[in-house]
Amino acid sequence: MCGIAGEIDFKNKIRRELLNKMSEVLTPRGPDAEGIYIDENVGFAHRRLIVIDPENGKQPMSFKDYTLIYNGELYNTEDIRRGLVEKGYEFTGHSDTEVVLKAFAEYGEKCLEIFNGIFAFAIWNKREQKLFLARDRIGVKPLFYAKTSGGIVFASEIKSLLLHPEIKPIITEEGAAQIMLVGPAKIVGSGVFRDISDLPAAHYAEFSREGLKVKRYWSLIAAPHDESFEETAQHTRELIFDAVKRQLVSDVPLCTFLSGGLDSSIISAIAAKEFEARGERLTTYSIDYKNNRENFVASSFQPDEDAPYVLEMAKFINSEHIGVELDTPALADALEYSTYARDLPGMADVDSSLYLFCREIKKTHSVALSGECADEIFGGYPWYHRPEVIHYDGFPWATSIPERAALMKTPMSAEAAEAFVRKAYKRCLEDVDYLDGENAEERRMREMFVLNLEYFMATLLDRKDRMSMAHGLEVRVPFCDYRLVEYAYNIPSAFKNYRDREKGLVRHAMTGVLPEHVLWRKKSPYPKTHNPNYMRLLSQKLTSLLDSGDCRLTQLVNERALREMLETNGASFKKNWYGQLMTVPQTYAYFLQIEYWMRKYNIVNE
């Protein structure tokens, strides 16, 4: 993967020193090479993480009237290349960058319809004086932009945009409400900062002297599902196997994440077989926390520990396994680093732990495969199954809106807060396509699918990209293959819940791939520390911050309400902040991240 940044300015001269600065802050995304392109009204900067074809994948890359900077990976590169060769195109190497560029030259924006991959890229058409920006269907790779007095500026990360003299670190009341009521998610299309936008997944944008046009090029379409259960299981199996195999291509060392849960175990088992067939041994990585075994307490969300399943799976697939153990102080310290990596307050220690985990993996590997997206498209989360949450008129992982509102600097009424969040929720539902005659249950499952895709999964993918690319580690997500997502959208919920189990279809489809008790193990969330010292440490940090006389956090958070929460050990906040992962300790950590964010970026709250 890479980092991209650029500016189109039809009024002012392009400044190389600005491009250099915008590129420099993206160095972690692309530590291996850099490139600059300047021509009249356009300036492009590229930072490269070399994964495929070191010599022939250099960027910016030009062909005829087009110049490209690209962050991503295509998984059907050879299929597209063959089609272009038949049309007379010649290629100097085997990089997907050259395929993206020449596919655009041939097909224009229609190239997006044939790309299977994760990407964000920019192409300058010199003859037409037009910029083309695009983002992959699922939104795995980030792309932000902001309008300027003379044109537009864009980048992989917000920190790069903020170097432009016209883009200021300002958040309005709407931005503050996002942080407090929607965060760590953000509203689709919003960059939270006043002047910054997020190009949504499955969209492209065109910018010229006539202005900016943003268009959607892909959406989920409802269609009848005519296959039997067994046919569906076989089809699902084939799509998963194909997605994983396509994503094992790399010219640098590749590994997989292995948590001992269903999704990462499937990916690792398929990858291990492919490695074995070519005489190699797969390396797998897992994460755990110091003294977690002693402090673990079973719950309905997590009935057992991951560690025993990790070791069993590593033995079963004969991987070279490396376990990374984190301690409480390091986890707390990394909250600050992970906030800068993400440019926004994130998922607390769910972010900081991944940040530290990826740092360790990068010491030996530059590419990894991970299991995100399976729960969203195959119904793995509790809110797909619990009646009291399924029909909640809002985001089902964030039912604590009144409690959040009470913690705002100027407490917002529960009604006003829920209206703010529900506006984004209702807008998301407008993207849902239904089948005529579907019953209420199937209609709601389609809604849940889209809600999860556009919000909950988007938050997790943002986390995965930013924490990994902060260390120059490319993480691929096979369950985000758009063919699998399209197919899963039309699978009946009764099939997905086979044997009354979350992801029952996937479990049945993978019979023989995993040991039976791993295959049917109850879903376990992302591993987090169970050490009570962690909550005490965060409480002490917050209390000291409030007592310091130099607290930025209280520009957004009500000090009295926060002190009450600290004094009651979280009892005054009766719900999880975000899903099952962000309970009281993670809520404390989120507030610390707000402080680090406001201080690091010198946030101005309008």
Structural account:
The chain is α/β, with parallel strands linked by helices. The protein is built from 23 helices and 19 strands. A six-stranded antiparallel sheet has the order 2-3-1-9-8-11. It has a six-stranded antiparallel sheet with strand order 4-5-6-7-12-13, with helices on one face. A five-stranded parallel sheet has the order 16-15-14-17-18, with helices on both faces. Strand 8 and strand 9 form a beta hairpin. Helix 2 (77-86) crosses helix 3 (96-107), helix 6 packs antiparallel against helix 17 and helix 21 (532-547) crosses helix 23 (584-600). The radius of gyration is 23 Å and the shape is globular. The mean pLDDT is 95.
Structural class: alpha/beta
Cross-sheet strand order for the largest sheet: 2-3-1-9-8-11
For the report, how would you describe the main beta sheet?
6 strands, antiparallel
* Mass-distribution shape: globular
Keywords:
606 residues, single chain, alpha/beta, six-stranded antiparallel beta sheet, 23 helices, 17% strand
Q: TL;DR of this structure?
A:
The chain is α/β, with parallel strands linked by helices and 606 residues long. The chain is built from 23 helices and 19 strands. A hairpin with a 4-residue loop joins strand 6 and strand 7.
